[in-house]
Amino acid sequence: MEEEILITEMTEADCDAVTEMETTYFTDSWVREDFSEGIKDENFHFLVARRQNEVAGYAVICFAADESELINICVREDVRRLGIARKLLKSQYITALNEGALSMYLEVRESNVKARALYMSEGFKEIGVRKWYYKKPAEHAIIMVKDLKTAPPGVGNEV
């Protein structure tokens, strides 16, 4: 039997768990205040994935005109390969479409082969490189874009 993964809006109560994940997995990490203030900003949308009532992952997007950008997505290492990142992505597609976005952009480390493979399997295309975008360690970013008009119409737990 597949374990239930629930996708919900991030709340203030989630900020400590999300900040802990952020600082564990990212070298240029956001601080708690970034999340706490960000969830109040109408230009951003924050989701968390819950597994067994614990925060297992999160995804943040922002909006500008008819575009959206995946700012950050993270899944705890102990629960990876369960489809959580894919579920977060699909939920954010719906949010972006509802906000009028026609496309979703993202940057990903050139060396992050697993993430790039996930994004490609979700219909993202590599469109460019930002030289030395990442600082710790220094690395290029691959710019990717997805046409949201081809996004699936719904996912299991819509928010």
Structure notes:
- The protein is α+β, with helices and mostly antiparallel strands.
- The protein has one domain (5-150): 3-Layer(aba) Sandwich (Aminopeptidase).
- The protein is built from four helices and seven strands.
- A seven-stranded mixed β-sheet has the order 1-2-3-4-5-7-6, sandwiched between helices.
- A hairpin with a 2-residue loop joins strand 6 (125-135) and strand 7 (138-147).
- It is globular.
Give the biggest beta sheet: 7 strands, mixed
Radius of gyration: 15 Å
Shape estimate: globular
Integer tally of domains: 1
How confident overall, as mean pLDDT? 90
Indicate the proportion of strand residues. 35-45%
Structural class: alpha+beta
Structure annotation, total helices: 4
DSSP helix fraction? 25-40%
If strands are numbered along the chain, what order do they take across the biggest sheet? 1-2-3-4-5-7-6
Number of strands: 7
What is the CATH domain class?
Alpha Beta
Low-confidence stretches: 153-159
**Secondary-structure arrangement, i.e. CATH architecture:** 3-Layer(aba) Sandwich
CATH-defined topology = Aminopeptidase
Task: Give the N-to-C terminal Cα separation.
Answer: 23 Å
CATH superfamily: Gcn5-related N-acetyltransferase (GNAT)
Q: What sequence of helices (H) and strands (E) makes up the elements?
A: EHHEEEHEHEE
